[in-house]
Amino acid sequence: MKILIVEDEQHIAEGLRFNLEAENFEVEIVGDGKQALQILLTENKQFDAIVLDVMLPELSGFTVAKTLREAENYTPILMLTARSRPEDVLQGFAAGTDDYLPKPFELSIFMARLNGLLRRREWLKRETNSFQSSPAAKEIFAINNKTIDFTNLEIKTEEETIRLTLMEVKLLRHLIENAGNAVSRKTILEEVWDLHEDTDTRAIDNFIVRLRKYLEDEPNNPKFLQTVRGVGYRFVIENGD
Fold it and tell me: Domain residue spans in the chain?
């Protein structure tokens, strides 16, 4: 498998390369965001995963991730963030990254996160199947003439297929699993995204806005993804959906 490391701290990049190559990965390193986009979009090189630092010369990791997703490049991204900036994590999720790892990190944790991304479809399928206690949470879920495919990270309509990020899928699936119940922003941070620090929970609203655009006929007057004032959100499944 091929891994692209986008990291400007050479000792970190080379250390990761050494350990990944010891595990029989092929590794390429670039030191800035502009180079990363050159390789991925202009040269169209294919990788199985991208390890992406937030703070980079030329273009930030956020910009790189957002540009890749807008170009419909869905290579799994593991973003490296500063330990003291949980807002980086949420901004990374919003840009389309799939997972994050705070610096400094242990090699064993890094490998576990990376291997998790490389197995993400199988992992998603297993995780989805574990939700069978909830009749609403299925691998394929249909609502409002749209089909949510949790395994393939997609929402399908008659006209188009909308690709979702891993974090969008996890949020949507959590809300559907708890359909009819108010889910607090704090719960979403802790149970969906594994963030336990004092974080501005309003960042979640940006994800809800996007999900409403995907699912609702009138995103500004939502029928399914409803706001519970002062608490968070509730997914409503009407009879017949």
Answer: 2-118, 121-235
Domain 2-118, classified CATH 3.40.50.1820, yes or no: no
Class of domain 121-235: mainly alpha
CA distance 156 to 167: 18
Say whether pTM exceeds 0.85.
Answer: no
Averaged over successive runs of 10 residues, the pLDDT of the chain (241 residues) comes to 94 95 96 95 94 92 93 89 72 84 89 83 49 52 88 85 84 92 89 70 79 92 93 80 46
